[in-house]
Amino acid sequence: MRRGVACLLGMFAGATPAVAAEVEQSTAGPCSPIQSGNNNVVNCNGVPQRAMDRLNELLDRKDLDLKQKTAEANEWARKYNELNAQLEGAKKQLAAKGEDAALVQTAQDLLHQGKLEEATQRFADAEAAFKEAAGIRRELAAQNPATYRPDLARTLNSLGALYDDTGRLADAEAAFKEAAGIRRELAAQNPAAYRPDLADTLNNLGNLYGQTHRFADAEAALKEAAGIRRELVAQNPAAYRPDLAQTLDNLASLYRDMHRDSDAKAIEADAKAIEAEARAAAK
Predict the structure, then answer these.
(1) Mean pLDDT within 160-183
(2) Distance separating alpha carbons of residues 185 and 203, to the nearest angstrom
(3) What is the pTM of this model?
(4) Counting beta carbons within 10 angstroms of the beta carbon of residue 217, is it exposed (0 to 12), middle (13 to 18) or buried (19 or more)?
C-alpha cells in the first residue's frame, strides 16, 4: 500500500538516521557510489542531476563513510520516487477534473531540485487548500444548492483523488462517496449535464474498492459507470469512447484480481474494440 504524505514529512529534518544495520545492503538499491575528482559521491538512477547535487551536499555534511552514504541515498531515493509518482498522479487527476494543480506542480518542482522535505510540505499544503475549498463550497451549497452543489462535488472528487494518490484510502472513499451522492441527485435532475460526472466518480470509487479488495462493491460501481458511459457513447461516440474504454479496462483488471478470467477476457475484447473504433474515427 502506498504511504501518505505524513509518512514522508521529516526526512532530512536535522537528525541523522541510524544506518549501521543497512550498510551491508547499501548496494541493493537504486544508488551506487562513484568517484568524482577527489571526492566520493553517490549517484541514484532516475533522479535528476540537480537533485543529486543537493543530496550529495546533504550527505557530505555528515560524518559517514561511502557505504553509509549509499545506504542513506537509497532510502532518500525511495522516498523521492514515491513522492514523485504521487505528485504525477495528482497532477493528472486534477487536470482531468479542471482543478488548479499549481500547488502540486510547485511541490514537484521543489522535489526535482532535491528539496524533498519542502516538496512534501507543499503537497500537504495542496491537500489543505482542497479541504478549505470544500468547506467553503459546502457552506455556499447549503445557502444556494442549485448553484454550488456541482462545485462542491467537483472539489470532493478532486480531494478524493488526492487522498487516493497518497494512500489515504478511507479518506478517499468518504470524499468519493459524498461526491457520488451529490452527483447522483444532480444527474436525476439534469441527466445530460451530470451523468458524465457521476460516471467519473463511480469509476474512481470502483477502483478504490478494488484496491481494498471489496470486490462486490468495486464491480457494482464499475458496471454502473460502464453502463452510463455506454449510453453516453451512443449519443456522442467521439467524446465518450475513451472514457468507456478506460472503465472497461478497469473492470477487466478487477475480474483478473477476482480470478474471473473468462469475464476479464470478454471485457478486454470489448475495450479493444471500442479503442479501435476511437482510433478509426480519429483518422
Answers:
(1) 92
(2) 17
(3) 0.69
(4) middle
